[in-house]
Amino acid sequence: MTDKLAFINEDVANLKEQGLFINIRTMESPVGAWMTVDGKRVLNFCTNNYLGLANHPKIKEAARRAIDQWGVGPGAVRTIAGTQTLHLELERRVAEFKGVEASLFVQGGFVANQIAIPALVGQEDVIFSDRLNHASIIDGCRLSRAKIVVYEHRDAEDAERVIKENIGQYRRGLLVTDGVFSMDGDVAPLDKLYEVAERYGVITMVDDAHGEGVLGRGGRGIVDHFGLHGKFDIEMGTFSKAFGVVGGSLSGKKLIIDYLRQRGRPFLFSSATTPADTAACLAAIDLLEESTELVDRLWENTRYFKAEMKKLGFDTGQTETPIVPVMLGEAPLARQFSARLFEEGVFAMALGFPTVPRGQARIRVMNTAAHSRDDLDKGLAAFEKVGKELGVIG
Ligand SMILES: *Cc1c(COP(=O)(O)O)cnc(C)c1O
User: Fold this and answer.
1) Which of 48, 50, 134 maximizes ligand 1 atoms within 8 Å of its Cβ, making it the mutation to test the pocket?
2) Are residue 145 and residue 122 in the same domain, yes or no?
3) Is residue 2 a part of any domain in this protein?
4) Which atom of ligand 1 is nearest to the CA of 48?
């Protein structure tokens, strides 16, 4: 008898051989600028906690109060008995915050893409997708069974070329793009993509996971950044990044959002978000609406860190956001760099193929409002030391 599970050992050996096996670190303290990771106190440049909200006292208090009032679980999917007044309040507040007609609160960002894309397009349709779109968009596209046509990264002209070439052969089309690309920190040309899609009657959708709380007025996101309110058909969002909690959202025209309540399968068949999470998301929106202080600090830190890294001689790629890729080339160098930084007390992730293209391995630094100037200086000193030691900078 052959071992039916032998393929697992073979694949794991294969991953290890290629240096792609993931060593999952354990966090032993709450999310913050400094964290205890695998027993070591380190400066954290790895989390998406852009505004430092993941451990904010007001948000924790809101979650505690919601547990006292509502308990811990919703007890049902949204469409049966799981829709609580908290969910509807959050949906109203998200729509208001983003300046759109309506919003749907869902369990996460990943699942938001699985909800929206297969509800809007099917087997007879075509999707136009940026080459570097996030895995959750790619999986949402596959799930829809629509034809997927990739256009070159951030290239509206290429998007127009593929739309022109294909649209006539399908019932309808959907253009979908990341707003901020999480590996490079670059931004989709939303205004140009909108013009092109509109010309051909193609539905438009943007994944704003790394734009919310970061771009736009007071962190209102990428659509606000480009002033495209009411124009992009669907904005997908997440509460797990700048908002510091967990959950996802789909926002835009009321017609579409109400339709997703009928047709979004993970919305229909997976339980509602908990009262604690929902109340925490509401408290995060309160904080963002009250003041732009955290968003301003995030950008101040970002500008300082990027300028100092450039002065040191590092290549920080095409970033336009708080995501700073430190380009190193080959994956083994990036891994070694990350390991040496960790020894120096700095936690920054190495990313290699297949997360990024071959030969473009990097360390990714996530700037946040939680870092002080002193933290950034400590981080920069470690980058300088390791960069010189490994011959990356002179
Ligand atoms: C993180 C991320 C998601 C997934 O969001 P979750 O709320 O963590 O599920 C989706 N899209 C993009 C672009 C992301 O970066």
Assistant:
1) 134
2) yes
3) no
4) 1
